[in-house]
Amino acid sequence: MLDCQNCEKPQALKILCSNCSLRELCLPVGLNPDEFEQLNTVIRQSRHIKKGEYLFRVGEEFTSLFAVRTGFFKTNIASLDGRDQVTGFFMSGELIGMDGLSNNVHSCNAVALEDSEVCELPFDRLEELYGEIPTLQRHFIRLMSSEIVRDQNVMLLLGNMKSEERLAAFLMNLSQRLRARGFASNEFILRMSREEIGSYLGLKLETVSRTFSKFQQSGWIDVNHKHIRLTNPLELNRLVAGSNSNTETQEEE
Amino acid sequence: MLDCQNCEKPQALKILCSNCSLRELCLPVGLNPDEFEQLNTVIRQSRHIKKGEYLFRVGEEFTSLFAVRTGFFKTNIASLDGRDQVTGFFMSGELIGMDGLSNNVHSCNAVALEDSEVCELPFDRLEELYGEIPTLQRHFIRLMSSEIVRDQNVMLLLGNMKSEERLAAFLMNLSQRLRARGFASNEFILRMSREEIGSYLGLKLETVSRTFSKFQQSGWIDVNHKHIRLTNPLELNRLVAGSNSNTETQEEE
DNA sequence: CGGGTCTTTGAAGATAGTCAATTTAGGTGG
DNA sequence: CCACCTAAATTGACTATCTTCAAAGACCCG
C-alpha cells in the first residue's frame, strides 16, 4: 500500500501532505484526513532543484503548479528588449506557477536561489479533485486572489514609494514571512543578490547597497553582505507605513 | 454592434448572457446554450453606476464579482499614509473584484469613471455552478491567472520603463483593448484624468502632461485634452518594445 | 590560493518631481 | 444662452532622487 514509485530511500521519501509541517501554510489548509489522503495520491513529491536551476521557463507548456517544500525561488519576466523584472520571491509553503493557467504557457521563469525541494501538483489531477474536495478548490482560488493582492501591493510600492521605503517594506515582508514559518524573523540570510533585490524593487543594485548602508548607519539594521539583522524593526515599519513622517526626526513614543 | 439595440425596451431589461454582445470577451466564453441558460439564472443584470460612484470600497465584504457591460472603471488602493495607486482600468467585458476572494473582503476600491452598467455575479451562486459547468470554472481560473499576468507586466513597466515608454505602453494597451471590442483603436476618448493615468503609471500628472506634449511634437499622436488620436502607432510600439532601439542597438549579456 | 563575482562607495549626470503661474474646459445657475 | 466658477491641464524653472560610470574591496568556490 505504501508503494513508493521512485523510491531511493523507502518510505521517508514519500512525504505526505498530512505529515508535512507546511500543511497549514500550503494549499491543503483545512482539509480533513480523508481529503488529505486523496491529495496525497495526486502530488508528486520532492523534486530537487539545485541552486540556479530553472523550475520552468517562459514559453514552456504549463502542466503543474509547484509548492516550495524547502529552499527559495524567484520568478522573473523580461521585456522585449531584454530588461529583467523579478516578480516575486517564494519560500516554503508558497505556490509557484499560477501565471501559467491563463493560456497553458508559463509567462515567467522560476529559478531556485538555493538548493530546493518542491512538490509538483499536476493541474489536471488537481482539477479532478475539485469536485470531490470543494475546500481545496476554494482554497486554491483564495491563493490566486492573494497573489493578485500581493501584486497590487507591489504596484503601490513601485509606483509611490522612495528607495528607503521600498527596501524597508521588502525587509519587513521577508521578516513577517519567516516568522510565519517559525524562523527567526529579526536575523536572516538573504538568498538573493543586490541586483535581484533591486530588480524586484525597481532600483539599481547600487541604490540597494547604498540604502542598506544608510539603514546600518541609522542603526536600523546590521548588514554583513547576505546576513541581515533587524535591530530596529519598529523604525523600519514606520518608514513603510508613513513615508511623509520626516525620517530625520525620530519621535519615539 | 457593441451596444444592445433592445436595451431601452422594457422586455429587454433582462439582459441575457446568451444575447450579450460581450459573451466572447466576458466570463462565459465557450459555453453551450444549456450552460448559458444556467448562467442567466445566476446573474443579476444591469446595475447602473453613475460617474464617480463606487462599485465597492476597501474593507467591504466581498460577495460578488462584477462584469462591466458598458462604461469604464478604475480600481485603486491607498497606502497607510494616504498615497493612492490606481491598480487597473476596466472596460466592457472585463471582470472586477477578484481581489476580494482572498479573504472575503475587498482590498481595493472600484470607481466608475463614466456612467456605467455592470452585471453582478454573486460568487456563491457562481461556485454552485462550477460543478455543473466545468468550462465556466476553468475559464474563471483562467481569468484570475490573466489578472496575475497583467499585474506582473505592470510591475515590469513600473520597475524598468522610462516615462515615455510607460505612456506609450499605456496608450497601446488601451488601443488594443478597444480594437478587441470593435471600437476605433486609433482615436478615442480618455475616461481618466492625467492624475489617474499618472497614478497607474507611477508618474506625476505633470510628467504625463509633458509626455503627451512631447509625443504630439514628435508627431506620434494628436492630443486634445481627453481626445487622443494615434497618428503613428508603430513608433509608439517601438518605444514600448525596445526603448534602446531608437539609438544604437546595444547588445548585452 | 586565485580568479571571478558580488558588493561597496564616490562623483557626475539624467530623469522625474516639486512648486508655481497661466490657460482651458466643463458644469451650474441666473 | 451666457457668464461664471471650479477643476483639470499645460508649461516653466528649479530641485531631489536615483542612475550611470568607475574603481576598489570582500567573499566564495573550486
Mean pLDDT of chain A: 88
Strand content of chain A: 15-25%
Largest Cβ-defined interface: A-B, 51 and 52 residues
Tally of individual helices of chain A: 7
- Arrangement of strands in the largest sheet of chain A: 1-8-3-6
Full CATH superfamily name of the largest domain in chain A? Jelly Rolls
Give the low-pLDDT segments of chain A. 1-12, 243-253
| Secondary-structure content class of chain A | alpha+beta
Largest sheet of chain A: 4 strands, antiparallel
**CATH architecture designation of the largest domain in chain A:** Sandwich
Pick out its properties.
alpha+beta; Jelly Rolls; 7 helices; 4-stranded antiparallel β-sheet; 253 residues; 38% helix; disordered C terminus; homodimer; Arc Repressor Mutant, subunit A; disordered N terminus; 2 domains; DNA-binding
Description:
- The structure is a homodimer of 253-residue chains.
- In chain A, the strands form three sheets. Chain A has a four-stranded antiparallel sheet with strand order 1-8-3-6.
- Residues 1-12 and 243-253 of chain A have low confidence and may be disordered.
- In chain A, strand 4 and strand 5 (84-90) form a beta hairpin.
- The first copy, chain A, folds into two domains: 10-148, Jelly Rolls; 161-252, Arc Repressor Mutant, subunit A (Orthogonal Bundle).
- Chain A has helices spanning 33-42, 123-132, 134-160, 163-180, 194-201, 205-218, 233-241; strands at 44-49, 54-56, 64-70, 73-78, 84-90, 95-96, 109-112, 116-122, 187-189, 221-224, 227-230.
- The first copy, chain A, has seven helices and eleven strands.
- The longest helix of chain A has 27 residues, at 134-160.
- By secondary structure, the first copy, chain A, is an alpha+beta fold.
- At the A-B interface, strand 5, helix 2, helix 3 and helix 5 of A face strand 5, helix 2, helix 3 and helix 5 of B.
- Chain B binds a DNA duplex (30 and 30 nucleotides) through residues 162-163, 193-195, 203-210, 212-213, 225-226.
